[in-house]
Amino acid sequence: MFLFPLRTRHCITIHQCSLRLQGKLTAVARNIHTHIPYKMLPLSIEQRRPAQSPEYDQSTLSNYKEFTVLHTDLNLSVSFDKSAISGNVIFQLKKLNKDNKKTSELHLDTSYLDVQEVEVDGTGASFQVEKRKEPLGSRLVIANPSSNDEFNLTIRFCTTNKCTALQWLNSKQTKGGKPYVFSQLEAIHARSLFPCFDTPSVKSTFTASIESPLPVVFSGIKSKDSNEVANVYKFEQKVPVPAYLIGIASGDLASASIGPRSTVYTEPFRLQDCKWEFENDVEKFIQAAEKIIFDYEWGTYDILINVDSYPYGGMESPNMTFATPTLIAHDKSNIDVIAHELAHSWSGNLVTNCSWNHFWLNEGWTVYLERRIIGAIHGEPTRHFSALIGWSDLENSIESMKNPERFSTLVQDLNDDTDPDDAFSTVPYEKGFNLLFYLENVLGGKAEFDPFIKHYFKKFAKKSLDTFQFLDTLYEFFPEKKGILDAVDWETWLYKPGMPPKPHFITALADNVYQLADKWIQMAQKLKTSEEFRSEFSAIDIKDFNSNQLVLFLETLTQNGHSTEKPKDFDWAKAPVASKVLLDIYQDKIVKSQNAEVVFKMYKFQIFARLQQTYKNLADWLGTVGRMKFVRPGYRLLNSVDRPLALATFDKFKDTYHPICKALVKQDLGL
Ligand code: BES
Ligand code: ZN
After folding, report:
1. Structural domain of 312
2. Would you place residue 97 in the very low, low, confident or very high pLDDT band (cuts 50, 70, 90)?
3. What pLDDT does 36 receive?
4. Is 312 touching ligand 1 by the criterion CB < 6 Å?
5. How many CB atoms neighbour CB 164 within 10 A?
6. What ligand 1 atom has the least distance to the C-alpha of 629?
7. What percent of the chain has pLDDT over 70?
């Protein structure tokens, strides 16, 4: 059996006694105790504690533990003709290990990069790019970096046509007829843009000078000495950040103000739509977040609405959120994605997971904060409604996993050469959210939990941590609630696959939706003619539904209702009159919707109902969106009913997708 060393146990007792004697503690007083190296988690979890904390990141080939990066300077040039970014990166480094033998080599990550020259303190140095190792790339080995403890390392490089970090669009592929390029580096693609310590455990301040014939945006604040006439754009990121947060885009970008500290950038043809969609809410979100956590530390908060092929909903590049044009719904209904990316300014960007095993610390926390922001503005029922949709997404995601045993645990184990892109799922988002939501509730509600939020983000600001450090901080902060914390089934929450325990959600905004969906399912099994349906249902049924309620309505239909006795043998394909008349009655709010979430759920319903004449509409739509949230399940749905159409559609559009999206759809279709 595993036993703690006596000293450790002793420590716990003394600590708890003293805390109890002091009675109610302020967060500041609690802080004093945080350095005490006790191990107070339940035994089953203590047994899993890694030897060193934060845990070592296995998704890098660099020897990042041996150096500190004091600063990183990027000097880049964008060539649309060559579809390449070239230039140099200058790292100011400091050896952490004074023992020269250990640091006689410096290892960095690269992936499909052309490394041309290396200099240490201005003198040429020998280097070698090792053979590629999937999925991590090729280690760059620099021998004898320097005899000094602090030194400058300059690497000249160029991206290649196998680069996974960038998508290049030629002038025919954009609506405005100008070429475009954007980066997407999370989780491990920074190494394909520039040689680096590509781990969320290493943070650095950045300066960047980027030359391009078209306007450039970057994950930092534009410097005064930019010389746009000479096509040189300069930026600064004063907060230390990991490499995966760097974001670069260049194209025909116009901009408009959307708040006192916010600007939106996008291609000119959608500028007014973007301004309208975001203008009202961004500053409200920032202020709501500041109240929950603490002041926004980054200065400006801008948004880049990328081209259609942008593969994610959003990416939290600091100062410059990158987002998909599918957020433009013309009714501000997808704005929660902005609340999410903004929330990353604290969770993820300030306080970062130390490796992708603990990705839930980035995304679960961010979903939690996103919903707190939405709740602060629209009320608790709206927060709970969003959580409910998330719960159903989580169910869908785990159900459709090829290997749920492996990929549905909250804490991941990517130490087996798994590509973080392959482990990506809804689980860290929604299981992570549910754990925090559960903790909020068992610890006594928001009033009790909120001081912990502030404490946690202050304590780990500008650092990277693992799940154990999160747990330690929780236990340290709530000494008087140790009993409650010990009663949490941590083993299940953190390490067991499958759904977590279901919390109680306020269903005020969902009840009408569920009732209507259940009624349709009942009637679809009973009624025959269009007239019969029309006497039961009308457009008024959904008149007051917002887009999120429409999404839940359509989703509940495909899940055969919400009631506990779901009809097992009911199949929409056997009720073609019902499904057709449903879409006809509700056409104004569903079929004509401009909200991509609603449109996608409608296609899903049509596929479930086997409305063959609509398959072509989904196929065409897949040529207009690049966001993987829609593209991947879209192809899977199409493939489930008409494989030749799915394959022909993919063949037609594959070169318009982002390289990561293209690879994953290919995999999904078994090609
Ligand atoms: N950081 C993620 C996007 C990401 C994660 C890119 C992992 C690459 C690897 C971003 O913050 C995100 O979660 N985006 C979501 C938004 C949603 C949850 C509101 C998305 O893209 O759908
Ligand atoms: Zn996120």
Report:
1. 64-336
2. confident
3. 44
4. yes
5. 22
6. 22
7. 93
